[in-house]
């Protein structure tokens, strides 16, 4: 039986989708069968971060309605174990049949090792849909106080709905910024109130990989790419040492 991981954040602009895609690609490279579900109805872009923008989009609604099976979900080039169901653009989250979505998730858990659901920013109906059947939560935030507050609130709401493990990923980490803020990763963990799953450095390769239409794991294994690999390994229960922020970004 597979594991359902909901990737959430309190606000937009945290890089949640790129982290979701980066971790999904690394899980696949580690040998896992992975299904990504973009739950950001109307504003989908997980396909871009996965290097699948040119693929014919099959939405999770298409599968829910019985027109297609999960086997028809597009596969990432070079990563045949990674498939994507994108979000429909013509319906609202509160119009989605919860029972049919539950059946989809149950079927996916039978077929895949990991189901990663990329939640929309905020705590609306799309957020509720994404966390509804999650086995664990990955909360993505930035270092700034507003992002921390929003992440804490999103985590609080999610955990009030689902009594599941929740861990924090701090994205776009810049040692220089932390020095100027006189802050540490421990401060952010305290601010959000969650244990740490990983640290992802601020890395231009995330954008460059998307421009070239490649998953991050096939573009680089330095910087953010290596950080996503470490997160994927920790999700699988492997012991991977957390690097200190003052050290080289490539080692995080």
Task: Describe the overall structure.
By secondary structure, the protein is of the alpha/beta class. It contains 11 helices and 8 strands. The chain has helices spanning 16-29, 46-49, 60-64, 98-111, 125-131, 145-161, 175-181, 185-192, 205-211, 216-219, 223-235, and strands at residues 3-8, 34-38, 75-76, 79-85, 114-118, 136-141, 166-173, 196-201. The chain has an 8-stranded mixed sheet, sandwiched between helices. Helix 1 crosses helix 11 (223-235). The radius of gyration is 17 Å and the shape is globular.
Distance between the termini: 30 Å
**Oligomer kind:** single chain
Helical fraction equals: 25-40%
Low-confidence segments: 247-252
Average pLDDT figure: 91
């Amino acid at each position: 039986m597979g594991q359902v991981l909901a990737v959430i954040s309190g606000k937009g602009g945290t890089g949640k989708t790129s982290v979701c895609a980066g971790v999904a690609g690394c899980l696949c490279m580690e040998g896992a069968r992975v299904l990504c579900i973009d739950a950001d109805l109307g504003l989908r872009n997980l396909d871009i971060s996965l290097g699948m923008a040119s693929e014919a989009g099959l939405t999770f609604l298409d599968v829910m309605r019985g027109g297609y099976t999960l086997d028809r979900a597009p596969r990432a080039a070079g990563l045949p174990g990674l498939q994507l169901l994108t979000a429909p653009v013509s319906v609202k989250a509160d119009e989605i049949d919860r029972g049919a979505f539950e059946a989809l998730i149950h079927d996916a858990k039978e077929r895949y090792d990991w189901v990663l659901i990329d939640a929309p920013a905020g705590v609306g109906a799309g957020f509720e849909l994404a966390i509804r059947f999650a086995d664990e939560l990955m909360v993505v935030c930035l270092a700034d106080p507003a992002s921390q507050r929003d992440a804490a609130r999103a985590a609080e709401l999610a955990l009030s709905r689902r009594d599941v493990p929740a861990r924090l990923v701090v994205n776009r980490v810049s040692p220089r910024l932390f020095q100027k803020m006189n802050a540490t990763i421990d401060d952010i963990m305290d601010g959000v109130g969650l244990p740490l799953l990983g640290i992802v450095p601020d890395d231009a390769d995330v954008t460059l990989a998307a421009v070239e239409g490649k998953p991050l794991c096939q573009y680089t294994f330095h910087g953010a790419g290596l950080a996503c690999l470490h997160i994927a390994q920790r999700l699988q229960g492997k012991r991977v040492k957390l690097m200190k922020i003052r050290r080289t970004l490539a080692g995080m």
